[in-house]
Amino acid sequence: MRIGELARRTGVSERSLRYYEAQGILKADRTPGGHRDYPEGAVDRVIRIQEFYAAGLCSSKIAELLPCVRDADGGPSAIATPRLVDDLTLERDRIDRRIDELRRSREVLDDVITTAAGGSADED
Fold first, then answer.
1. Which residues contact 55 (CB under 8 A, 6 or more apart)?
2. pLDDT band for position 18 (50/70/90)?
3. Which of 18, 80, 108, 109 would staple 68 via disulfide (CB 3.0–4.6 Å)?
4. Burial of 30 (0-12, 13-18, 19+ CB in 10 A)
5. 91-114, pLDDT tens digit by residue?
6. In angstroms, rounded to a whole number, what is the distance separating the alpha carbons of residues 51 and 49?
7. Which residue has the higher pLDDT, 124 or 85?
């Protein structure tokens, strides 16, 4: 599929897809005319890349991680190194801390909303 179709199917801009390719985290063949030609599996790959970015991973860490991830079309092609596992554990811990912070923020907002609505914060 061409880059425009991949962009439409994933909701990711063509510019981002080109960036992913430059970073080595997305691969495309080239047509005789020089256009990018992505396999069907690129849709799942782009969605996975977006998930990793949303989790706060940088492109170099994503490039290191992707070969260790089970794709829809089969198993991983590499085993995560102990260093990568340590790095990812730290990332997961960071995400867990952020989730806790967001939960606390939501509780504060719930209290403000309840108070503003004329109720008490204990009426849940």
1. 91, 95
2. very high
3. 80
4. exposed
5. 899 999 999 999 999 999 999 999
6. 5
7. 85
Q: Which amino acid is at 24?
A: G
Place of tokens 């554990």: 89
Inter-residue contact 57 to 95 (CB < 8 Å): no
Helices (H) and strands (E) in the chain, counts: 5, 2
Q: What pLDDT shows up at residue 97?
A: 95
CB distance 76 to 68 below 8 Å: yes
How far is it, in rounded angstroms, from Cα 67 to Cα 80? 8
The amino acid that residue 3 corresponds to is I
pTM across the whole model: 0.72
In this structure, the dihedral spanned by the alpha carbons of residues 68, 94, 52 and 20, taken in order and rounded to 10 degrees, is -100
Q: What torsion, rounded to 10 degrees, do the Cα atoms 24, 26, 31, 33 define? A: -60
Amino acid letter, residue 76: P
Domains (range + CATH), the chain: 1-59 (1.10.1660.10)
Q: Is the pLDDT of residue 124 over 60?
A: no
